[in-house]
Amino acid sequence: MHYCADQASDCQVAQIAGVESELELPFAALHQLCTPLLKELPPLPEPQERALRVALGLADGSIPGRFLVGLAVLSSLAEVAAKRPLVCLVDDAQWLDEASSQVLGFVGRRLLAESVLLVFAVREESDVQLFEGLPTLALEGLSDDDARDLLTATVSGQLDAQVRDRIIAETGGNPLSLLELPRAMSAAELAGGFAVPPTATLSGHLQDLYVRRLLALPEPTRQLMLLAATDPTGDATLLWRAAQTLGVTREAAEAAETEKLLDISSRVKFRHPVVRSAVQAVASPAERRAAHLAIASVTDAQQDPDRRIWHLAAAATGPDKDLAAELERSAGRAQDRAGLAAAAAFLQRSAALTPSPRLRADRILAAAHAHLHAGAFGTALSLLAEAEAAAVDELQGAQVDLLRGQVDRAASAGREAPVRLLQAARKLESLDIRLALNTYLDAAAAAAVAGGLARLGGRLIDVVTAAQAAPPPPAGLQSGDYLLEGLAVSITAGPAAAAPALRRAVDGILRGQLSPDQWFHWGILASMAALSLWDYETWTKLSARQAEVARSSGALAPLATALNLQRVMATLSGDLELATSLGVEEDALKKATGTSRTSYGALVLAAYRGRADQATRLIAKAADEALARGEGLGQQSAYLATAILNNGLGRYTAALTAALRSVQEDYVVFTRWGLAEVVESAARSGRPELADDALQRLTDVTLKGSDWAAAIAARSRALLSKGTVADSCYLEAVERFARTPLRPELARAHLLYGEWLRREDRRLDAREQLRTAHDLFTEMGAEAFAERARRELLAVGDSVRRRKPDAQNGLTAQELHIARLARDGRTNGEIGEELYLSARTVEWHLRKVFAKLHITSRRGLQDALPTR
């Protein structure tokens, strides 16, 4: 890193290092990097500036989204680098706190048009996975010849050839080891080969060398260096104040500076991060506690309360109820500033210092819960094992089971989660009925996602049967309870009987003052309820509200889920461009959060887009991944997409095979859509018995009062009818679909009607229906269905040219999304906030868009990308 800094002579250089003792202190490393930059930083967009200041503890406020903080850091670095290129060097990156690591990794993956270089150094190759997606370079040792030259230049006296070669072999050619090792050897050892360098790992070997040098220093010098190692902020003023409390004078620094181990000027700098590790290693536990206490005593309790309490906790020698309570209060501040992972770290320390067994178990459970929602599933499970051993009553034991089930659901969304959650709900019934009912809802959502891949005893029917037998809540029913009741009745008595409860649930959720946690808790099931009611409008409102709540809360995983559903709705409304654009944001969120759940929107979009090779690869990959996760809903969506794709291509046998597999489960989201695909593909494949059975099942789930449901049923009946009955059913389907936003379904009704009219030899009538279908499909970009309509038009004697590709087809999905947002009047900063890019990267993308569309400014976007 020193070499990198020396080479960056024409650049601004910012250097920080991760510190092992601050692994759990949120944004500790980011504070080192960003605080000096804020002085020369022009104003950022208000949400970004607020998020960054809250994260750094410079302002109070609600919890900022982790990736909004990342965008703020990206924008900050870009603005600083606009004056002069910026090089950011991060040493010992394996010891960055989790919050800083996530943010800086996010920034690194989005550097494109900015004059910023971000370099991370890690000690071991396995640590590289902390920054997945970034280019890596493994630094190897010097060649033997170069190592010999370096040793020869370093050693002033006699150097035995065998000793030299042994040193090279033991150090692996590491330049620092080659420089340091001879300093630890006597002239006799170097000249005569009377000692052998110890075998150790490279970092351990260097640390041992520094330990020996540290032990030779005066005690006050070691005390001063320990204080410097304990406080990684590099604040020289703070260091001297802490030294004063221990009676260490400035003369103590002379020996460390002479040995070139520590430099104290305006900032505190170690020669190498391994020196810091060696200082900690050579100190006794009592000495380390004294250093933490000294740092805490001079840390401002008003300006930096969390760091102060962190040092006090490190100095504790045993349980301390007052200190534990302070840590718990700090957890609340840490969550507001840095999110759940930060809160979990403070709660964990609080639990360790709590003397009361019951309160300790509660705090361990709280820490596990925070780690769960922060995505640290392994840590959560480890804490749950500790909580299980510490539990003092049945309720705490049942909460352990509940959290284990929630971890299973969040981590894999598959086979085990429904069973675990169902078992936890049953245990909780006699302990906390409200918590039990909420757990039944969690189990129902998990069972709906797992579908037929759920483990025995964890199917949706199992969950709702158990929930029905549970006692009612003493404080009255909530919207979630009506959801649970509606699901149960839908399975046991059918959709018509369940409609009142489901309607009450979705209306209550839309009108009620729900907390974000309730939205995330009930959102998926509420969408399922709206679909059961064939209520497209309510489904749209629920999804939009869920996305709004997720955005305002900085909850990116729920936002990705909401965008997934919005892509499905955009495709069903015929806006395939919007569905594609939403996919850019969804993909960005999934990469940022590590979410791996199936993108149903991507599959339905690919099916209707109709590009066979691309769609087939995407669908096959999604089906395999869903099977591996145990995500039955993802597998079902892949079968449905395959059926739609092949019906569009006119491959009815293949469509029938996939459609039949998509309707094997009666009580999952996409079954009713799959039944319509079965009817069409079976009717066209000469399998009327399969079509009749599917139509009967479809009729059973069709509710009165819904144009969507009635139109689907009428179109399906028409396929199996003849003469005036078929004609009447087709007309009803066209009329009803025309009253909905479902343009692809309307176009398919026109297409099927036109095909039937052609076979009835009503060529003029057929031409009218087929041309309408062709125009609709062509306008929305449903290529396979448009080609199917074109072939039918040719059969009735109408000539139709293949549509030329739009100019926008040369744009990538991300470029198209950025262009649409710019066309609609969004600024570069606003576009960057939505896609987690800097404004300069957005500008770079727009220049590429202008070149591809042969325009010179934003004004040309209106003509190049007309609003549909």
Automatic annotation (TrEMBL):
Pfam families for this protein: GerE (PF00196)
Ranges for domain HTH luxR-type: 804-868
The reply to whether Nucleotide-binding figures as a keyword in the UniProt entry is yes
Organism expressing this protein natively? Kribbella alba
Q: What is this protein called?
A: LuxR family transcriptional regulator
The answer to keyword Glycosyltransferase applying to this record is no
Upper taxonomic classification of the species?
A: Bacteria, Bacillati, Actinomycetota, Actinomycetes, Propionibacteriales
Q: Record's InterPro entries? A: Sig_transdc_resp-reg_C-effctor, Tscrpt_reg_LuxR_C, WH-like_DNA-bd_sf
Spell out the PANTHER family in the cross-references. Answer: TESTICULAR SOLUBLE ADENYLYL CYCLASE, TRANSCRIPTIONAL ACTIVATOR DOMAIN
Keywords attached to this Swiss-Prot or TrEMBL record, sorted alphabetically, are: ATP-binding, Nucleotide-binding
